[in-house]
């Protein structure tokens, strides 16, 4: 198939240019930039006018649930949301029930997602049952097509375990995705430690609960080598630590989530007490200066991955007083739209946008055919960055998110995965 | 519709304006002056559900007695010796109890925001009798009722001292004072205190703050909420010569307030008057919840 649009993503110039995109079956065969399609073959080309066309997202941080938590989300419902959210590849966290801590369970996961059009790549756990006590069977687990190791949901508090995990993933060429939280400091917390938490009468989690663990792991990486992948960063202090780490040439990558990049704790100030739990997430959403620093980190390339931390919970776990409600919020269905909003707010160039949305996550996962060039997967979205969209809940099994009802600028119109149109607005 | 037929929930003092509060004062005063046999006809035949998921003596008993004064009967639900011990969820328990058609529920729970969430599970109005560190409306309204009775037109100057961070009374009192135009300041100079800056005036100099205040409101360190706040014992010599002293109780004499305060405050000690005023106020709150 061959299409022409006046706005085709051109990674060489870092902007959208008029051009032709050709794909055969599931692979891009040609990307050609020219102001008009050649007149001879015009009948074979579909003209997509002014719509923007570029690669769809690779999301490094998704909680797929399913198994014993299929009341929250199933692989099917997740895929259905990813279609609409413009996500072509989802790296899925290991804190499913049962945990992805044995080769059998990882194989079961892989079997279940094999036929999915959205590629779902599991992480395996660092420790058995995420308890941080005994390590899981890394040797066997890392032989499988996993994204790497992660105890996401829990930090790796044991230093020896952390060092060993760094070495193991380095050897296997995989990722170690880190949930940075000093759980002693953040114990019982619901919101950022500050005026809003004080006002709402809940415990706060200070930025140091995250930053102290980031600092520890950077120094461990300096000592042992290896690559750190920081999940869902939330604080200005953490970004500053990354800035120093870059000077020391420590190898790292870092995620920002839509909620940390778009919301601030002040927005929790006036939410009715009964719905406040929608705002509960770990790490907590912090102040506007933290958000500004995350934006700056994105511009500097210190924070270099967009990741949803999509965390479905049913009303049973979420429709509760904040203290005992579950952490996390969903955003998979709005992934691409939310990051268009982040791009706008953080004043990112399109090149910075696509690097964090697509190319950096692709290279971290070692997906060689996720490139915007001939030979790459024909997976892309068609969108209009000026069209307004109201975020409505349509597709998931859970609806725990403060994003519902929000109006954003930039709408996703179509999503194609490996040559198939999987979503049309 | 719910308001019209079933009266109103009281989940937070945030929802009340000055005229709401003043009408509660008038109502409490009227009930106080009514002779007991007539008072007992006010809510005769109604049944309240007392659901306490956290220990309490004075709040529970004063609500209960206030209801009996009005002719109410009570059914009781406590965490101990109930189906919760068998593993039933709080939501299921309360939804079931709601089917027994109580006319109102008085609810206490250790979690902030519990009353607001639970009100959605119940058919009849809910009175928040304390939810975690969030609010304790009946205490704050009772305290303000006492001050209003002393001098109805006066805009009192109150200084709060002690473990404000963990105190649900403080949060409710802040709303009530704001509505009534009373000045409320927090005495403290640590990092925690600075987080109050938006809600209260902050006084960093304890001595001058206590001297200036007409009311010194002392709060207990809430160990049961994991508070590590050091007790800032208020001594007799720190108080201004005319300062009145309040405390929501229970008072830890020698820790919250010095023993000499216990001995020598005399009529400047309003702590027992507070307990009485809260009891009177609770009658008005029950009537408000029961509705016309």
Describe this structure in words.
- The complex is a heterodimer of chains A (425) and B (292).
- With 425 residues, chain A is an alpha/beta fold.
- Helices cover 30% and strands 24% of the residues of chain A.
- In chain A, the strands form 3 sheets. In chain A, strands 1, 2, 3, 4, 5, 16, 17 and 18 form an 8-stranded mixed sheet that branches. An 8-stranded parallel sheet of chain A has the order 6-7-8-9-10-13-14-15. Chain A has a two-stranded parallel ribbon with strand order 11-12.
- Chain A is globular, with a radius of gyration of 21 Å.
- The two termini of chain A are 20 Å apart.
- Chain B is of the alpha/beta class.
- Helices cover 40% and strands 16% of the residues of chain B.
- Chain B is built from 12 helices and 9 strands.
- Chain B has a 5-stranded parallel sheet, sandwiched between helices. Chain B has a 4-stranded parallel sheet with strand order 2-1-3-4.
- In chain B, strand 5, helix 8 and strand 6 (183-187) form a beta-alpha-beta unit.
- Residues 1-6 of chain B have low confidence and may be disordered.
- At the A-B interface, helix 5 of A face helix 6 of B.
What keywords describe this structure?
heterodimer; A: 425 residues; alpha/beta; 30% helix; 24% strand; globular; B: alpha/beta; five-stranded parallel sheet; 9 strands; 16% strand; disordered N terminus
**Element-by-element helix/strand order of chain B:** HHHEHEHEHEHEHEHEHEEHH
| SS-based class of chain A | alpha/beta
Give the % helix of chain A.
Answer: 25-40%
The biggest beta sheet of chain B reads: 5 strands, parallel
Helix content of chain B: 25-40%
Oligomer: heterodimer
Task: Report Rg of chain B.
Answer: 19 Å
Low-confidence stretches of chain B: 1-6
CA radius of gyration of chain A is: 21 Å
Average predicted local confidence, pLDDT of chain B: 91
Q: Describe the global form of chain B.
A: globular
**Pattern of helices and strands of chain A:** EEEEEEHEHEHEHEEHEHEHEHHEHHHEEE
Beta-sheet strand percentage of chain B?
A: 15-25%
Strand portion of chain A: 15-25%
- Mean pLDDT score of chain A: 96
Estimated structural class of chain B: alpha/beta
Apparent shape of chain A: globular
